[in-house]
Structures are given as C-alpha cells and as structure tokens.
Amino acid sequence: MDTINIIDAKNHVDQEVKIGVWLTNKRSSGKIAFLQLRDGTAYFQGVVVKSVVGEELFKMAKELRQEESFYVTGTIHEDARSHFGYEIEISGIEKVGASEDYPITPKEHGVDFLMDHRHLWLRSKKQFAIMKIRNEMIRATYEFFNRNGFIKIDAPILTGSAPEGTTELFHTKYFDRDAYLSQSGQLYEEAGAMAYGKVFSFGPTFRAEKSKTRRHLIEFWMIEPEMAFMHQEQSLEIQERYVAFLVQGVLDNCQYELKLLNRDPKVLEKYTKLPYPRISYDEAIKMLQDSGKFGDLEWGVDFGSPEETYLAEHFQLPVFVMNYPKAIKPFYMKPHPTRDDVVICADLLAPEGYGEIIGGSERAVDPQYLTEQIKKAGLNEADYEWYLDLRRYGSVPHAGFGLGLERAITWITGEEHIRESIPFPRLLNRIYP
Ligand code: 4AD
Ligand code: MG
C-alpha cells in the first residue's frame, strides 16, 4: 500500500492508501463518523462507517481529539461536494501523537488571541491557503528573474547605510560601532548591476515604522531587481510583466487555495492584461483635487492610503504613478531632465484598496549631485564612498525597484490585513511568538 499525501489523492481513486494526518474537526452519529483531516498539503474528509470497521475502531475514531496525529488507511473516493473533490473511506487508524485541549476551536476567536497562537493558527485552512500562495509567489519570482537573465545577489542585513532615510531605522550595535538592520538592499544591488548587469535580491528588510496600519509590517520581505543600461520606461515594463507573472502563477497553480479564500479568479485575471495605466504625479494630484474628496490637497504632498485607494479604484487596475516631487523621495533618484522639482520614479498602486506594492526609480548617476543629496538627507558621506565609486568607474544609466512581498500577497489573496501574509508577523506591538 502506498503512503501518500492528501494532495495526491486524485491519482489514487479507488485505491487503498496510507496517510499521516491531524484531525481538525469531526462530527458523528451512532453509525457514521466524519473526520476532517489535514496533512499540510490539503484538507479532506475521512469517513468511518461502524458496520464496516466494527465497534472498536469506530469508538476510537469518535474519540479522536482535535489536532491529534495518526495514520489513516483507507480507500480514496471522489467527493464532488467538497472544495477538494476527494475523501477517504477509512479502514484503519494508527495513533501517533495525543493532543491536549486545543486552544483554537472551530468557533470564532478574536485577532489578538489568534496572533498569540500564531504558531498553531498557521495550521488552519485560511492560513494554509495564504502560505501556499506566498510560496507560489516566491517560486514564480525566481522563475521570472532567472528566465529574464537576472542573477540573485544577496544584500547584507547588517549595514551602515540608510537608503530610505533615517527616521525608520533599526539601530543595533556592531561590536563597538553602530549599525542598522537593512531597510532595503538597493544600494548593494546597484553595485551588483554594475558587476553583473541584471541582478535581484530577495530578503528581509526592517522599518521601525511607528504606524499601525493594515499595510505596515516592521519586518517584511522585499524583491529588489536592479538593471544596468536601463532607463525608467524599460524598468516599468519589467515591473508590470513581473506583477502579471505573479498573478498568473497563482491562477495556474493555486486554484484550490483561491477557493479556500473565496478569492474570485476572474478578478485576478484582469490583472494579467498589460500594460497597466501610467499617470504622472501631477495628473494624480489633479484627479484627486477634481474629485473634491480630499479637502485642500496640494501639489507636493505624499499620498496616504485614501489617495492611493482612490487612484487605483479609478482604473480598477494596478496603476503606475510617475515622477513624484523630489522633496518626498530618497536621495538616489534621478533628477528630471527639464524640471528640478520632480524625480524619475514610479510607485505601482494596487487596486481594491491595497495601495503601493512597488517603489522604484531610475538612479542618479552624477557623483557631484549624489554627494549633495546625501548631505541634504543628513547622511554621513563617508558611509557612502563605496556607493559613489559606482559612479566613478564606468557609470551607466540604471534603474530598479522594490516589490513588497507581503503587500503583494495581501492584494492577490484579497485579505484584509497584511499580518496574515507572513508566517510570524512583526508588528508595532508584537514580537511573540
Ligand atoms: O518604496 P520603498 O521604501 O522602496 C525602497 O525601499 C526602494 N529602495 C526599492 C528599490 O528601488 N530597490 O519600499 C518598496 C516596497 C513598497 O512599495 C512596499 O510594497 C514595501 O516595499 N514596503 C512595506 N511592506 C510592508 N511593510 C512596510 N512597512 C513596508 N514599507 C515598504
Ligand atoms: Mg515607497
């Protein structure tokens, strides 16, 4: 008899198999017991019929406890009524690990309670579906960048540079020196692009953001491609192709998970059609002003969640907002050739209220200009000598971007809050478990 995973049930219809499982829920009458089972690959139902298995096994099945682990043997059948499509008619149970009273019962629990039990909450169906989609998006990321000639260059986590400004830095000691946890690997990817042409990083990044919103994590994962001999316009094309590829990957490989989340694939299909609309920051300001919904909003402000939501809702698609005011963007962005108040950059705003999922730009190449900007940003020039070297030895036009993985997951899964898009979220008031 084969030992299989639940996910492979379709290949074993009418065959006898053995599966290692946990019990998530159960219901029974005097004659039949329905055991809800999971094994980490899918969820399905086991059926135990007293007249078939006998008194003793039936009693054992009825007394199984939530999250108890065991092997079941039985025959796979189709089950058109379930999301999964198959069930197992159980003929044997072999117990493995007992379970105490499990804190997460099938009834509703509050978010704080669930977050305190995140290590167990991960076992539930919805969390399973989100983590599988996360995994698919990571898989698709590697596939996309490898197919397109990028190589992965890992950026350090401990660093002395602060690309995104000094207000949200996590300080730490580095022996007798000061250091920070990385906010972004970008500056190192720029070095990588000058060495290897097209590179990307994928790693954890840290922002000591005091904001407690449904879009902010303290620790999040970012994918940061950087490309030599490239202008912003070509970078936007890569960005939209990458985002559409992520959505397509989820559509191709996660239909079961989308069903578990009640996420309509039709909605996602719209996001695979390219190109995405592009508007300038100036146009965005005008649209927001004309809507009359944003008070006396003026040119120069950064957008918050209501503005981003309005803009993307207008198009019902991801939308690039290009060329923001220089004053609200980081030091490294390329100045506009004919205007000194904006920089060559774009944020990609996701529809359905999810806000910015990508920030990117063409990079400034003039070392003199960069030195001034570094000073203006209140950064220590000596810490950026190596970065200025990149402009001293064969500098070329280059551009890159950063996609926040958890923002993108929250959008694609259609979830309310970013905290469920990462296995163990770090939030303003939470570092447990
Ligand atoms: O716009 P950001 O700050 O851009 C950068 O860090 C650039 N250095 C990227 C680059 O050009 N290589 O961040 C990029 C993305 C945002 O669009 C957002 O998706 C995500 O990172 N992000 C966060 N996600 C979760 N929690 C937070 N606190 C986030 N801050 C940014
Ligand atoms: Mg940004």
Automatic annotation (TrEMBL):
Organism domain of life: Bacteria
Keywords, in A-Z order: Aminoacyl-tRNA synthetase, ATP-binding, Cytoplasm, Ligase, Nucleotide-binding, Protein biosynthesis
A matching Pfam family: tRNA_anti-codon
EC number from the UniProt entry: 6.1.1.22
Name this polypeptide is given: Asparagine--tRNA ligase
InterPro entries: Aa-tRNA-synt_II (IPR004364), aa-tRNA-synth_II (IPR006195), aa-tRNA-synth_II/BPL/LPL (IPR045864), Asn-tRNA-ligase (IPR004522), Asp/Asn-tRNA-synth_IIb (IPR002312), NA-bd_OB-fold (IPR012340), NA-bd_OB_tRNA (IPR004365)
Species of origin: Liquorilactobacillus ghanensis DSM 18630
Known catalytic reactions: tRNA(Asn) + L-asparagine + ATP = L-asparaginyl-tRNA(Asn) + AMP + diphosphate + H(+)
Keyword hit for Ligase: yes
Enzyme class: ligase
Domain Aminoacyl-transfer RNA synthetases class-II family profile: 131-433
One term under GO cellular component: cytoplasm
CDD domains cross-referenced by the UniProt entry: AsnRS_cyto_like_N, AsxRS_core
Location of this chain's protein in the cell: Cytoplasm
Subunit relationships: Homodimer.
One GO term of the biological process aspect: asparaginyl-tRNA aminoacylation
Molecular function terms, GO-annotated: asparagine-tRNA ligase activity; ATP binding; catalytic activity, acting on a protein; nucleic acid binding; transferase activity
